[in-house]
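Incident log entry.

Two folding requests arrived from the same account within the same minute. Monitoring flagged them as a possible duplicate submission, but the sequences differ. Recording both here for audit purposes.

Request one:
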Amino acid sequence: MAIASDETTRICNHCDRPIPSSNIDLHYAHCVRNLEKCKVCGDMVPKKHAQEHFLNTHAPVACSLCSETMEREILAIHKGENCPQRIVTCEFCEFPLPAIDLAEHQEVCGNRTELCHLCNRYIRLRERYNHESRCTGVAENVGSSRDVRAAEREQGAQRRQPPEYSRRRLLFTIAITGIAVLLGSLFFQKKTETSQVH
C-alpha cells in the first residue's frame, strides 16, 4: 500500500520511527504491547524474543579453550591472539602446542643443535639465523666439534661428581615413599572391607 508523499508523519514515542499521522494511535498501541527496545543496542525486538536476543547477541560468552568470560564481539580476537590455550607452533620444530607453554618449550627446543653444513660446527637452533648470516663456510681448526663437545662433557663430569650423601638421601626417600604407598593401600583395603560389612 503506497503512502502519499504529502501525508504527514509523526514519530512514535516508543520505537522512534516515523509513522503516518493517520495510523499513529493504532501503531503506538501495537508497538507498546509487542515490542521492546534492547537496552544494549537500542534495536526494537519482539517482547517474547527479548531474552533470546540478549543471549544470542549481547550476553557474555565463555571461551571454549580457556573458559574465560568476555563479550561476544571480542571472542574471535581473543581466540586468535590472546587466549593462553590457543594452539601456536614452535618456531624451531613447528610442533603445535598451547600458547601458554610456548616460551618454556622454545627455551628447551631452541637449545637443540644442528650441524652447519658450511662450517661443520653444531649451532643452537635459536642462533641458527644469525649464524647463517655470519657463517663464512670455513671450518675452524680447533678439531671437530664432536671432539670439543666430548672434552667439555668430560670436564663437566669431573666437576659435577654428586656427593655420596645425596644418593643415600634419594634411596631413603624412595624407601619411605614405598612404605607410605604400601600402608596407604592396606588402610584403604581395610576401610573398603569394613564399609562392605556394614
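Request two (distinct sequence, not a duplicate):
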Amino acid sequence: MFTRIFGKPKQEANALTTLDKLNETLEMLEKKEKVLQKKAAAEVEKAKEFTKAKNKRAAIQCLKRKRLYEQQIEQLGNFQLRIHDQMILLEGAKATTETVDALRTGAAAMKAMQKATNIDDVDKTMDEINEQTENMKQIQEALATPIGAAADFDEDELEAELEELEGAELEEQLLQPATTAPAAPVQVPAGRLPVRAAPQRRTAEDDELAALQAEMAL
C-alpha cells in the first residue's frame, strides 16, 4: 500500500519531465524551420539577381539549393507532427492514470460505507454499488478510445487541397494585366518589306530555367 502511494508522485514527475522534453524539442525544431525558411527565401532573391544578370547557371544553382532547403523544412514539419502526436498520447495516458486513481479512491470509500451500513440497508447499498460499477465501465470504455488523430490524415486529400490552392494562385496571376509597354512600330522604307529575324532555338538549360522561374513565382 505504501509503495503504491509513494510511487504515484514519481510517475507523475516522469510524465511531466517527458512533456517538458518534448516541448523543448518542438521549440528547437520550430527554430530550425524558421532558419531554413529564411535561407530558402534568400536563395530565391539570389536567383532573381542572377537572372537579371543573365547568369543562368548561377540562378539554377540557387533554385536547386532552395529545393534542398524546402525538403529539409518538410522533414522538420513531419518531426513536429510526430512530437505533437506523442504529446497528445502522453497527456491522454496521464489523464487516464489520474482518473483510474480517482475511481479507485471512490471504490475504497464505497467499501468503507458498506462496512458501516446496517443489514437493512444492504440491498440499497448494493444497488448503488452496481450503478457505480456500471458507470465506471462506461468511463473506462470512453477512455479506451484511441488517441492520435494526426496519423489518420488523408494525404491524398491534402495533396488535392494544395493543388486547388496552386491552381487558384496561377489563375489569379494569369488574370493580372501585363505591365510591359507595347513595342514601338518599326519604320520601313517604301517598297521594302521588313526582314523577319530568325527564331532563336531554346536550349534545355533555357527550358529548365523557365520552369524553375515559374515555380519560384508561385
